[in-house]
Sequence to fold (303 residues):
Amino acid sequence: MTTEPPYLRIAGEIRRRIESGELAPGDPVPSTRGITQEWGVAMATATKALGALNQEGLVRAVPGVGTVVAESGRERATTPARQLSREHIVRTAIELVDAEGLAALSMRRIATEFDTSTMALYRHVPSKGELVRLMAEAVFGSGPTGPRPAGWRPHLEREARWLWKQYARHPWLARSMAGLTRPMASPNAMLYTERVLAALAGLGLTPEQMLHVHLTILGYAQGIAMAVELESQARQDSGMTAEEWMTSMESRMDAIQATAAYPVLSTFFGTDDFELELGTLFEFGLARVLDGVEGMVEGAKPV
Fold:
């Protein structure tokens, strides 16, 4: 007697939930991490299960949300097949990872999106690592538009905000580019570095100071952006928005506050004026970083 592979068994159970109406069109299905937790399987098995459902046209990836039930079981069947090329592979990978996170990416999963074999992908992209590099390159391929701002500080603000926008739009990007000490040889990412250094040129800073300013801004933006990825993954895993999660924690927070062990922190619990928003936090920190750079620039001016 042939034993059904685990990924088909998992796909069958999720299919049953969809067909029974337990999961309606637009509802999120278990993420790859959720599948590993519910069924106790490896990430590769979870990826194959979702890939099988995608091939059937039962699910689709939605950026910022995850994999959801497709509006129609024929949705995939009525979509023209995508041409297999490096550009299309990279674009498909970005769409997938925007929706499900970097952990969901595998050459096998991308192959299912094209109804082809994994080996066929390797003719265009030699490895998963190279695919991630190409994805980051594609994102960095479009810089800020419009004329260059007058003054070094507005110029750095524009570059930093552009970078933050890319991180917010693509939560996986910060982690894929996180190696400050081992940067990737990526021409488009290097163009971002060039623009930042050009903003600092002619201010009297040493080359070391200029590079340190660039890496400080880059590292700061990446650090805040990591929270974007964590929130995106937490939403997929828990099925709750940040606001819904905070509401679910209210009773526990009230119990902690009642201990009177945190007299200063407790003053924040009773006010509705403060709400943590990552974009606001980014702007606050960016201003402080550039204040420090401004002091250094002033100190470099000839007396």
Confidence is low (pLDDT under 50) at residues 73-81. The radius of gyration is 23 Å. The longest strand covers residues 59-62. The longest helix spans residues 207-238.
